[in-house]
């Protein structure tokens, strides 16, 4: 009965926070995406984020719509099935866990619940269909912290990001979810349309290799210091 109580308590904790919903729209005229709060009425909301596309560099640039400052980047590779991000100066690697299924892991300090604040693994998973894709971000306990519902055939309104639990209350966490989620979305499009990405997947080595190496390095440092 104890596991069921823990799951119920975790779900109640998530439900105690008001979910935060963001809309992602694309402008063909400006060649940019805009992320805004989803409005409950017809009044248009002011953008929170602006996403610019550097096609020659295969890079996304995330800017604050308030002061035009760069808060993050996303780097897409034509062959490798791993991607990189940066969020407010912190480098993040989106590491593929499988070759032909969208499942990516990255390490986050913002979601850390450890005593010393060590990075914890976060996982983005995705179910793809002909019209709609559903991305879900899970914490290390496999509890959802964000959802990103995408209409891949939409010309303007790309999709909706829903922040759950404590993710809805912290601006830094929101930045991380927007940058990693949108980077993974556009990387999924690249992978689905590129023959180079197909061969990159064939010869890739997916899995938790990076996290394992970092853990060993920390253990080794601890032993040497002891």
List keywords for this structure.
alpha+beta, 12 strands, 226 residues, single chain, globular, 37% strand, 4 helices
Task: Report on this structure.
With 226 residues, the protein is α+β, with helices and mostly antiparallel strands. Helices cover 27% and strands 37% of the residues. The protein has helices spanning 2-15, 171-193, 195-202, 209-225, and strands at residues 20-27, 32-37, 47-54, 59-64, 70-75, 83-87, 90-96, 103-108, 120-128, 132-138, 144-151, 157-163. The chain has a twelve-stranded antiparallel beta barrel with strand order 1-2-3-4-5-6-7-8-9-10-11-12. A hairpin with a 6-residue loop joins strand 7 and strand 8. The longest helix has 23 residues, at 171-193. The model is unreliable at 1-16 and 209-226 (pLDDT under 50).
Structural class: alpha+beta
What fraction of the residues are assigned to beta strands by DSSP?
Answer: 35-45%
State the helical fraction.
25-40%
What's the quaternary structure here?
A: single chain
Give the helices and strands as they follow along the chain: HEEEEEEEEEEEEHHH
Strand order of the largest sheet: 1-2-3-4-5-6-7-8-9-10-11-12
Shape: globular
Q: How many distinct beta strands? A: 12
Taking the sheet with the most strands, its summary is: 12 strands, antiparallel, barrel
Rg, rounded, reads 18 Å
So how many helices?
Answer: 4
Q: Which spans have pLDDT < 50 for at least 5 consecutive residues?
A: 1-16, 209-226
C-alpha termini separation: 42 Å
Report the mean per-residue pLDDT as an integer: 79
